Amino acid sequence: MYKQLGLVAGVFLASTSCFAADSFQVETSVYKANELLASPVMLVEEKQPATISVGDSFNYEVTVIPQKENTAAIETSITLTGRSFTPSFIVEYGKQASFEIGENKVSILVTKSKS
User: Fold this and answer.
1) Long-range contacts made by residues 34-39, C-beta under 8 angstroms, separation at least 24?
2) What is the DSSP letter of 113?
3) Contacts of 90 (CB under 8 A, 6+ apart)
4) How far apart are CA 111 and CA 43, in angstroms?
5) Across all residues in the chain, what is the average pLDDT?
6) Total tally of structural domains belonging to the chain
7) Closest to 80 (Cα-Cα) out of 98, 55, 99
8) 106 with 26: CB under 8 angstroms?
9) Domain with 87 in it: what CATH number?
10) b/e burial code for range 6-45 (CB count within 10 A of at least 16 → b)
11) Closest Cα partner for 56 from 79, 85, 86, 87?
12) Can you give the pTM of this predicted structure?
């Protein structure tokens, strides 16, 4: 009886740790000289990088690291027509954030997905 109970408890603990990670919807818009180049929407697991490529001219990687209750640290790597950028910043869930590097502009909206 105790062995079975221990086995069930062990399986429960192992299964709950598998579901502990949150996921986030990340909507990104990338502009060059005010022209929209890409607007990927990705479902991203916390602390796990997600990557998307459009041909050879656009590569995008994003990692979401939850911080306080309504914020997350965002780590990105963007390659756009041969130039690479690696901006990192803090966003509030549900509020659009943006940054500009020269003639390139990136806006990002992160929402916490329902688990």
Assistant:
1) 34/105, 37/80
2) P
3) 67, 71, 72, 73, 74
4) 10
5) 82
6) 1
7) 55
8) no
9) 2.70.180
10) eeeeeeeeeeeeeeeeeebebebbbbbeeeebbebeeebe
11) 79
12) 0.76
CA-to-CA distance for 96 and 109, rounded, in angstroms? 5
Q: Does a structural domain hold residue 6?
A: no
Residue 15 lies in a domain: no
10 Å CB burial of residue 84 (0-12, 13-18, 19+) is: exposed
Determine the pLDDT at residue 17.
Answer: 46
Domain-located, residue 12: no
Q: Are 23 and 44 in contact (CB under 8 A)?
A: yes
Model pLDDT, residue 12 = 41
Q: Has residue 1 been placed in a domain?
A: no
**Residue 58 pLDDT:** 82
> What token pair was written down for 7?
């086995």
Average pLDDT over every residue of 76-94: 89
Q: Which residues form the domain of 29? A: 22-112
Residue with tokens 């796990």: 48
β-bridge partners, 79: 59, 84
